[in-house]
């Protein structure tokens, strides 16, 4: 024993006494076991080589040696970073040694070491140790929050803890960065709770909290919690980049806790405290968790301070019942929060606040850095506005400039302003920071942290960005009707108490418990919101109900008074401040704000100053262009033109040809304004003697072809939105048309004038003209009025907060969030029967007006297909009249070349049953190697019950030449689906680009099969067919029947479906589903097709299309995620929840062997429902569960 004297270590003698009898039992058991049956079990773990993870004897011995009589223990994960001298392990043990009634708990604490060094240190200290080694994974280093290694460690512990529950042990799991100050068991309720979890934030609701933390929780072993951990770990593969805690929160939101019948209690932070929300009562605090804190170094500093403060307040071993607060000292403040005490030295800041604040403890705060203090830079302009504004000069005396670098502080002192130096070691805020850069976000969060401390000190304040001009004193307009927070708006929607477009560059906050709690929670969210700026996080908190939950009264300030470049005040008599929001560059802000100030002084403010936009659209030239093109009713057509469109025989020529050859369209060219975004496009436009307007933006090059969803594509889309908003302001209505739209008839006769302000084309149309989420901004008609101007203002303002989204997606998001309704807009979706496109082609040549090359990315493909459209139109419309008897089905981005009709039709006819039903599987090179997946798949069909004949009705769709050759060699039914330039010949890994391309490629192909009138089962190759499935597939009007990763008894409502096996009936509804499914591909890059289909289901696509969808029970259609327990029922076994081809092959062979053993002589053994013991890597097992249950 060491000097620490920890008892209860597992002695070698005790181990020998336990192991020896077990070895005798194993020998006897081996003799009695019947020959021919494998002796290994399905492993409960899901992941490569997990059989080595939890050797039953060793772990069982460790658990028995530690657990209390009621089979309860404490578990902590230990790695190399925690066991250094004076590191986290020593501090953790110190807390247990010095806490109230905690020292004995060390005897019931199992340290699970994930590397050799941690294990050795644990053994040296004579603690209870268990070594959890995973081959090829190194957990020996410190892992940083949300890194891949961090997530791997979190998931690894979930897998291990799941196995502990299965063995019947209840446990407290604790992170090592938790100080145990008192014994927690007295506070852990035993009122039937299955799970009791610590909270980052607690708001008085013990049974409903979304802010739980998996760093400390108590779980009772039972069927419900085992099922929870099973499902939790299974979500890992579908939740890449999410930590396990976030996944559990997502499961809670989706109802998993309720569905599993779990009673979950959330622990109060008064007792189970943390840095996110620190307990204020020393008499009650039990544990302190260093949550909301990233660095190991900082955690150690703060946790040592916590322990020191605890010892001071708990001297002589008894709590000072008269003192509830933490003791003040030179090292500890009211809270311990990730080194924050170093950030805001109390005395100096208090002195600064007292000197500046008004009598009512109110002041103004602005953040200052080097970039703002240069000569004639933002600071000078900001002070000038205060000096020249109405009743504002006196406010300088109540304004505290918080300098974040030395140069800013020096300049502030030189100007004899009120200055406070907020320096953070290792962080440089001295340079200009660009919008949404890491430095920008760090500065925003740094100010949030600081301002929260100001509130704690009891001071109210206006926070103002430096790029805000103060033209009048704002306090007269700031309400005092009980508001806790009053915040400026990028766009104001006439509802002061419900606005999602607030801006944290100017706001007034009252100091109270509610606003302090808000700032605490806001800053704590920083770690979980990487890449989001503080303002976006606050908006997210509002959407999730934080304002309501905290009881805050929040008012949005009207842009009439508190104006900005996003939406400029039109009334000089009312405007108070002007913020350079919706503007990224410091240089542009300075130019425009100087113009604002000059206009203010001269009382000649124009309609708007918006980040240099006045230079973009010179009024006289544009007005002349619009007047020269518009019809008498001030209506025109607008198209954007760039260099890529004006090449010889390119899109411009084809576009003009359609107008020249369409019905009653040629005259429209006189009312069409081509807006050229580069000089070459403008020159070509002028050469053709068209109506041209040159829209040149300095430093931006739109002269090249831009590819779908590239940065250049998005910039062009937003640039046109800005320009079109200006056209509306000038009072002109317009049709906007992309250049890849063929105009076959005059559209104006079909465009309604029944009070619609906006009429938009649709990618898909399902009979609801006033409720359609699939609109397309490539063709629309908009009427100029206040409502549409407000829409375009708000639409463009969203650009900065929607990086990576194209303008169309932003408009769809605005619609979902109620912008159309809020603005009072009447919006009509145009029918694809008339305004057609490649996504959903009009079937009626008598009605079609326009054809848009949507759902098509390449310029080359668009040109080929649109020429075909125009040629087909001319053939069917010869002599100027429509041939009503002839209608073309579709032209869709080269898809006709993909699915050659004659060859595919012959293949389908040769395979299908009499009822036009077949089975389809996709085949590539990786599947056809010797003894690879194809051989195993065919073996299952040949050895299954009533399945061999199905091979005659199975079409193998080969995606590369080697797969096709192998298929033909085996004399199977084969179809060669080759796509030029795409290589599917290699094994593709889960969620790689190649994987997603293969999944989408099959969706496109399968949609074509449905169009041809064939129903089919689609099956992945990693599905073993043990019985004929058709007898189990219902024919009660279902359109689609899909396999499930997990099945919970609801055949018509399941979010865990799997597209690796499903049966689909060919009809209009399923054809529409596959059309829409494939069309979603372009808008959801990085998502696999299965996830997209799940998203479509959540958004109501199945219901909207009138589909009847049944989810197949895993008792029959089984998989590794949730294995069927009944051999009499199982039909198929899918290697889902398993990533590696090698692991799948090993496990599926084991499944097939087990099936053959249990199904000898070709008939099912009806008296045996369970699988025999089977060896596997990824498998979920029942055999092990039965063996464990028998033992206990």
From TrEMBL:
Record-linked Pfam families: Nucleotid_trans (PF03407)
UniProt keyword Kinase, yes or no: no
UniProt KW keywords: Membrane, Transmembrane, Transmembrane helix
Domain Nucleotide-diphospho-sugar transferase: 105-302, 395-592, 668-865, 950-1147
InterPro entries documented for this protein: At1g28695/At4g15970-like (IPR044821), Nucl-diP-sugar_transferase (IPR005069)
Chain ranges passing through the membrane: 12-35
Name this protein carries in UniProt: (wild Malaysian banana) hypothetical protein
Organism of derivation: Musa acuminata subsp. malaccensis (Wild banana)
């Amino acid at each position: 024993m060491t000097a620490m004297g920890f008892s209860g270590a597992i002695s070698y003698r005790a181990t020998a006494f336990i192991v020896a009898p077990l070895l005798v039992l194993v020998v006897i058991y081996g003799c009695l076991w019947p020959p021919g049956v494998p002796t290994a079990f399905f492993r409960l773990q899901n992941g490569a080589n997990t059989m080595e993870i939890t050797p039953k004897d060793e772990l069982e011995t460790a658990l028995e040696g530690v657990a209390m009589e009621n089979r309860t223990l404490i578990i902590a994960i230990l790695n190399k970073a925690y066991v250094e001298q004076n590191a986290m392990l020593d501090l953790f043990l110190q807390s247990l040694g010095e806490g109230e009634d905690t020292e004995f708990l060390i005897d019931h604490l199992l340290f699970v070491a994930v590397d050799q060094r941690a294990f050795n240190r644990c053994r040296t200290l004579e603690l209870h140790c268990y070594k959890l080694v995973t081959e090829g994974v190194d957990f020996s280093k410190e892992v940083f929050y949300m890194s891949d290694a961090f997530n791997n460690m979190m998931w690894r512990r979930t897998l291990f803890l799941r196995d502990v529950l299965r063995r019947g042990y209840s446990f407290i799991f604790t992170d090592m960065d938790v100080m145990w100050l008192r014994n927690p068991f007295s506070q852990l309720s035993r009122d039937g709770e299955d799970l009791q979890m610590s909270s980052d934030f607690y708001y008085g609701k013990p049974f409903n909290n979304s802010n739980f933390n998996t760093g400390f929780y108590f779980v009772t072993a039972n069927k419900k919690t085992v099922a929870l951990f099973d499902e939790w770990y299974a979500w890992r593969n579908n939740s890449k980049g999410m930590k396990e805690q976030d996944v559990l929160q997502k499961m809670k939101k989706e109802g998993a806790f309720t569905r599993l019948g779990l009673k979950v209690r959330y622990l109060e932070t008064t007792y189970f405290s943390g840095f996110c929300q620190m307990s204020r009562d020393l008499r009650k605090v039990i544990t302190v968790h260093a949550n909301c804190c990233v660095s190991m170094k900082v955690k150690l500093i703060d946790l040592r301070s916590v322990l020191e403060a605890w010892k001071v307040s708990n001297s002589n071993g008894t709590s000072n019942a008269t003192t509830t607060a933490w003791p003040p000292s030179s090292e500890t403040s009211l809270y311990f929060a990730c080194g924050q005490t170093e950030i805001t030295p109390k005395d100096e800041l208090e002195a600064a606040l007292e000197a500046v604040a008004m009598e009512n403890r109110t002041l103004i705060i602005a953040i200052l850095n080097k970039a703002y203090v240069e000569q004639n830079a933002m600071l000078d302009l900001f002070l000038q506005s205060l000096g020249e504004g109405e009743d504002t000069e006196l406010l300088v005396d109540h304004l505290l400039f918080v300098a974040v670098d030395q140069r800013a502080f020096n300049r502030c002192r030189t100007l004899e302003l009120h200055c406070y130096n907020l320096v953070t070691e290792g962080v440089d805020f001295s340079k200009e920071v660009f919008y949404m850069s890491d430095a920008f976000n760090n500065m925003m969060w740094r100010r949030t942290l600081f301002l929260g401390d100001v509130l704690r000190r009891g001071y109210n304040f206006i926070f103002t960005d430096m790029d805000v001009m103060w033209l009048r004193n704002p306090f007269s307009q700031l309400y005092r009707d009980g508001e806790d927070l009053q915040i400026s708006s990028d766009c104001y929607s006439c509802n002061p108490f419900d606005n999602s477009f607030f801006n944290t560059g100017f706001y007034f906050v009252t100091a109270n418990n509610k606003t302090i709690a808000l700032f605490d929670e806001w800053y704590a969210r920083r770690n979980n919101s990487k890449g989001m700026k503080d303002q976006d996080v606050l908006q997210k908190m509002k959407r999730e109900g934080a304002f309501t939950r905290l009881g805050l009264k929040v008012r949005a300030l009207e842009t009439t008074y508190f104006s900005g470049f996003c939406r400029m005040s039109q009334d000089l008599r009312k405007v108070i401040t002007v913020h350079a929001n919706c503007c990224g560059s410091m240089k542009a802000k300075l130019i425009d704000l100087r113009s604002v100030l000059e206009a203010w002084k001269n009382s000649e403010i124009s309609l708007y100053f918006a980040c240099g936009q006045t230079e973009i659209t010179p009024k006289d030239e544009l007005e002349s262009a619009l007047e020269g093109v518009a019809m008498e009713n001030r209506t025109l057509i607008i198209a954007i033109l760039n260099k890529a469109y004006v090449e010889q025989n390119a899109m411009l020529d084809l576009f003009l040809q359609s107008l020249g050859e369409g019905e009653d369209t040629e005259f429209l060219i006189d009312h069409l304004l081509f807006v050229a975004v580069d000089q070459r496009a403008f020159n070509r436009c002028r050469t053709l003697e068209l109506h041209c307007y040159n829209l040149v933006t300095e430093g931006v090059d739109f002269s090249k072809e831009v590819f779908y969803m590239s940065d250049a594509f998005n910039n062009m889309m937003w640039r046109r939105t800005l320009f079109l908003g200006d056209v509306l302001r000038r009072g002109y209505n317009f049709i906007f048309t992309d250049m890849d739209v063929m105009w076959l008839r005059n559209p104006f006769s079909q465009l309604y004038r029944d009070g619609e302000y906006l009429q938009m084309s649709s990618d898909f149309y399902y009979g609801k003209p006033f409720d359609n989420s699939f609109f397309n901004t490539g063709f629309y008609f908009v009427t100029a009025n206040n409502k549409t101007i407000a829409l375009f203002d708000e639409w463009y303002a969203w650009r900065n907060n929607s990086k990576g989204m194209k303008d169309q997606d932003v408009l769809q998001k605005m619609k979902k969030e109620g912008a159309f309704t809020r603005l009072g807009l009447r919006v009509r979706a145009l029918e694809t029967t008339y305004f057609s496109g490649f996504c959903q082609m009009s079937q009626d040549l008598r009605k079609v007006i326009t054809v848009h090359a949507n759902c098509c990315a390449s310029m080359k493909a668009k040109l080929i297909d649109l020429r075909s459209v125009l040629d087909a139109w001319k053939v069917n419309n010869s002599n100027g009249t429509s041939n009503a008897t002839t209608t073309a089905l579709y032209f869709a981005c080269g898809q006709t070349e993909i699915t050659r009709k004659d060859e595919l039709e012959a293949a389908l006819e040769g395979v299908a049953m009499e009822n036009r039903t077949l089975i389809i599987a996709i085949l590539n090179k990786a599947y056809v190697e010797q003894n690879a997946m194809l051989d195993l798949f065919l073996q299952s069909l040949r050895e299954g019950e009533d399945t061999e004949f199905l091979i005659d009705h199975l079409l193998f769709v080969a995606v590369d030449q080697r797969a096709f050759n192998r298929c033909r060699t085996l004399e199977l039914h084969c179809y060669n689906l080759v796509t030029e330039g795409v290589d599917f010949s290699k094994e593709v890994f889960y969620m790689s680009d190649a994987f997603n391309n293969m999944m989408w490629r099959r969706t496109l192909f399968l949609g074509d099969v449905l169009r041809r009138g064939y129903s089919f089962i689609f099956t992945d190759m990693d599905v073993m067919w043990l019985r004929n499935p058709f007898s189990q597939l219902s024919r009660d009007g279902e359109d689609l029947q899909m396999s499930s990763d997990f099945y919970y008894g609801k055949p018509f409502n399941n979010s865990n479906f799997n597209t690796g096996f499903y049966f689909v009936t060919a009809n209009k509804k399923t054809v529409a589903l596959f059309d829409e499914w494939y069309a979603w591909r372009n808008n959801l890059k990085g998502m696999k097709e299965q996830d997209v289909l799940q998203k479509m289901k959540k958004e109501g696509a199945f219901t909207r299309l009138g589909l009847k969808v049944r989810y197949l029970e895993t008792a029959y259609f089984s998989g590794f995620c949730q294995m069927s327990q009944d051999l009499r029922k199982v039909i198929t076994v899918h290697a889902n929840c398993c990533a590696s081809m090698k692991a799948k092959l090993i496990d599926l062979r084991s499944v097939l062997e087990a099936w053959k053993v249990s199904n000898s002589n070709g008939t099912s053994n009806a008296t045996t429902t369970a699988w025999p013991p089977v060896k596997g890597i990824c498998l979920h097992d029942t055999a092990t569960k039965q063996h464990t249950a028998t033992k206990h």
